[in-house]
Specification:
13% helix, Pnp Oxidase, Chain A, 7 helices, six-stranded mixed β-barrel, mainly beta, three-stranded mixed beta sheet, single chain
């Protein structure tokens, strides 16, 4: 009875519940976690339980939530509502069984599907909606907050997913389009929010009061603290230039230029061959590339004992001796570490030679709230090495291949998962024909 009372209710800073287990089945001993914009969060938790016979396999892929509280008066716990990706039996001691659980968001489902597919005539919202729903996500698991320019942009004729997971596919397209995501909890439901606008974030901010580590704090339960904040600035190029080749008009120059740091920047960045078809597309892509660089020009790295520091949300700093630091920031990355092993040992009545302290610490990266965040291009475009077999697509009898005014064909590739009707399985594709003459042509070498 003493142990149960000691480990229950408000004594706990951290709690973990799995929907397939009783509410108080687990006690969080310690944990480590990481999260970032446009990434899956991941928490590794060491759990203690009085149940020594939990079926690990039955918990994989099931819902669970992890709550953190810093003990600040009137504070709300920060909760991660995700899925159990991995669950393992570790050891037994003192009548307790210790397990390790790995918690990930529902968006992790996208990582479990690896395939090839062709998508035709999709708008930007349709690309994301199609992939998310194909992975089994419900409509209340995600939300699109795209700008009107993105939502109303021309449909993309032909999109190929090739030997990659849904998560990799959607990540590389999001990076290309300047779209990123984070997680929000609303009414007990966690959802992934996709946007390309800094105004799409919830406006409220968690206030952190600056107090360097080591200074005494008589009101530790009254205010949330920030113990460290570093500002790091790095060089940026003057501008970004993107050029491409126009397949329909070889004489047309496709070029887009966007400033990054034209006044004090050093260097330039030039890119070619991004598969862009119009001047409008290439100018937009240059703008996104410039914003991706600019949002990393000045970053802030801090540490705090406050829970609730989640990527995609704002914090406001107060009390810093450098007045310009006292402002709002958008959190872009965070790592979390915590332990309440001391509470467990006290509850068991175990006397240790050294005092074991419970703690929580978050290290975070942030940018000023008036800077537009863009994801880095980390996912390479897949390449088909060599050749693949395919079928010329046509309506009617199929006696003759059908061409458009540019001499292009419609071709169905056999690796596509979904079955498409005749003449609806491809966009127009040019045929490359080797040819040679007395003073021109190509040479094949074996």
């Amino acid at each position: 009875m003493f142990v149960a009372t000691q480990l229950a209710g408000q004594n706990r800073l951290f709690s973990f519940e799995a929907v397939k287990c009783p509410k108080d089945a687990f006690f969080v001993v310690q944990f480590e976690g990481e999260e970032a914009l446009s990434a899956l969060y991941r928490f590794e938790l060491l759990l203690a339980s009085k149940d020594s016979d939990i079926d690990a396999g039955a918990l994989i892929g099931t819902a669970a939530h992890f709550s953190l509280s810093d003990g600040v008066v009137d504070g709300q716990p920060a909760t991660y509502q995700g899925l159990i990706q991995e669950f393992s039996y570790e050891y037994e001691s003192g009548g307790w069984t210790f397990y390790q659980a790995i918690l990930v968001p529902v968006l992790w489902k996208l990582e479990t599907f690896v395939l090839s597919e062709v998508y035709l005539d999709k708008s930007r919202p349709e690309i994301f909606n199609t992939v998310l729903e194909n992975a089994g996500m419900r409509r209340n698991d995600f939300e699109m907050r795209l700008s009107s320019d993105s939502a109303n942009a021309p449909k993309l004729e032909y999109i190929c997913q090739y030997r990659e997971s849904y998560l990799t596919f959607i990540s590389r397209w999001a990076e290309r389009l300047g779209v990123y995501w984070w997680y929000e909890n609303t009414g007990g439901q966690e959802k992934a929010v996709f946007t390309d606008l800094r105004t799409a974030h919830k406006d409220e901010a968690t206030t952190l009061h600056y107090q360097p580590a080591g200074e005494l704090d008589a009101q530790s339960t009254q205010k949330r603290r920030c113990q460290r904040l570093r500002q790091v600035a790095q060089n940026q190029p003057k501008h970004v230039v993107i050029r491409d080749f126009s397949a329909h008009r070889a004489s047309q120059e496709l070029k887009g230029t966007a400033p990054v740091d034209p006044e004090t920047g050093i260097g330039e960045m030039h890119f070619f061959g991004r598969k862009l078809k119009s001047v409008m597309d290439i100018e937009q892509r240059a703008k996104i590339a410039a914003e991706s660089l600019r949002c990393r020009a000045v970053r802030y790295f801090g540490s705090s004992t406050a829970t609730g520091l989640r990527c995609g949300h704002f914090v406001r700093l107060a009390g810093h001796p450098r007045n310009s630091f006292n402002r709002r920031y958008l959190l872009t990355e965070a790592t979390h570490r915590g332990s309440q092993a001391g509470l467990l040992l006290d509850g068991l009545g175990i006397d240790t030679k050294q005092k074991i302290s419970d703690f929580y610490l978050a290290d975070f990266t942030a940018i000023p709230d008036d800077v537009q965040f863009r994801p880095e291009e980390r996912h390479p475009w897949p390449r088909i090495i060599g050749t693949i077999n395919a079928f010329i697509d046509a309506e009617g009898s199929g006696q003759y291949a059908e061409l458009n005014q540019y001499g292009e064909y419609k071709v169905q590739v056999p690796f596509a998962m979904s079955k498409k009707s005749d003449y609806r399985g491809s966009a127009w594709i040019r045929m490359a024909t080797p040819y040679a003459g007395s003073d021109h042509g190509c040479i094949s070498r074996c």
